[in-house]
Every structure is written in C-alpha cells, then in structure tokens.
Design a protein that fits this description.
Elements lengths: L9 E9 L4 E10 L28 E9 L4 E10 L12 E9 L2 E7 L10 E9 L4 H5 L1 E11 L3 E11 L5 H12 L5 E6 L10
Antiparallel strand pairs: 1-2, 3-4, 3-10, 4-7, 5-6, 5-8, 8-9
Length: 205
C-alpha cells in the first residue's frame, strides 16, 4: 500500500474488559493513518470514545462546501444545509444553527455561527465563513475544524445534535476525503454531505 492510499484508511483500537462471562467494550480509538509520521515512533494520549455500532442512524446530515487559498492561507467554509435532524423537543421540529470553530495547538482561535433557522428538520443555512489558518504548514497540518449543529432550546440553552470534524482529528471517511481534496487542490471548491456524529464528552452551550 503506497502513502497516497492511506488517506482514507483508519486504525481502530478497541479496549475491552475481559471477564469470565463476556468481553465488555470499554471504548475505542480511531486513528487516521495519514496523520501518523511513518519515520518516527508515534506516541500520544487519546481519549477513549464510546463504541457505537451505528452512531449516525438518527443524527442527520450536513452539507458543506470548502475552498483553501494557498497564497493567503484562507479557508472558506460554506454551510449549505442539513437534513433529517433529530427533533429536540416534544412540540415540533428544532430551531437550529451551526457553529464553526477553528482549533490549533489545542486552542480555539476563532468561532463563527450561522443564524437560527426555525422549526424544520431540513434547515437551509447558506452562510459562508472565512478563516486564516496560520503562516506555517505545520500549523495547517494540525488544524481542526469543528462544525456542530445545535438546537436552540427556550429553557435549557442550546443542545448539540451532531458534529462534523475536518482536518486534524477527523475519523470519518467523508471527513478525511473532503479535507484531503481541499488541502491538495488549492483554489477549488469541494461540496460534500457528511453524517453528523455524536459529540464526545462535550458540554452543550
């Protein structure tokens, strides 16, 4: 397998508690192989995430368009629309918005959000946001883009319905492919649908 073929492959590590009667799943780690440096001994700490047979069954989908300009290091993300979002309350479809956050060196350096679209499980957002990713290739390599769909609750603030992660830390095939194309073919636009994944050990806001 050559290096280019690794971009859509992941290493899955499952941790189990073995007892007399059955093996109990404690959690799992998903590592995109393209994020590993094959020339060195890779050592890192990773939080275990709960293992789920079909985590996207009822979470919904989000359509995104991206473009990266190499000269200015500017990433543009167009949040287009979502489909089949979960109902967040008993009174009807959710009022939702999408938050886009840029993380570098484990620090959130920028955050932007769409307007709230009311009472629909298939909201149309069509809002574009631009971010400068840094001056070095190393900063861009370890950049994470978190795109989270929230339902606005009248009494309890906002509840996260699901998330897409582009860049460093992404695990889903659609996320890996989308980011790879964006970072490889500068100046071109790429539009893809993504399954919304549950957030891992995060508080809603």
């Amino acid at each position: 397998m050559n290096w280019e073929m690794l971009e859509n492959h992941m290493l899955r590590i499952c941790v189990q508690n073995q007892n007399r009667f059955k093996n109990e799943d404690m959690g799992e780690i998903l590592l995109p192989l393209m994020r590993l440096d094959v020339d060195v001994d890779n050592r890192m700490w990773k939080d275990l995430r709960k293992k789920c047979q079909n985590p996207t069954q009822e979470s919904g989908y989000l359509q995104l368009r991206t473009r990266f300009t190499k000269q200015t290091k500017k990433l543009t993300i167009l949040v287009i629309k979502a489909q089949d979002l979960l109902r967040s309350s008993l009174i009807g479809p959710p009022d939702t918005f999408v938050r886009v956050e840029v993380i570098q060196n484990e620090k959130r350096i920028d955050r932007k959000a769409t307007k709230i679209v009311k009472r629909t499980k298939d909201p149309l957002y069509k809002e574009a946001f631009s971010f400068t990713l840094g001056v070095s290739l190393e900063e861009i390599k370890y950049t994470t883009i978190e795109i989270t769909v929230y339902a606005k609750e009248k009494l309890f603030g906002s509840a996260a319905l699901g998330q897409v992660i582009l860049g460093y830390g992404s695990t889903e095939e659609s996320e890996l492919r989308h980011w790879s194309l964006t970072m490889r073919e500068y100046g071109k636009e790429f539009t893809k649908w993504h399954s919304l994944m549950p957030l891992q050990d995060k508080d809603s806001s």
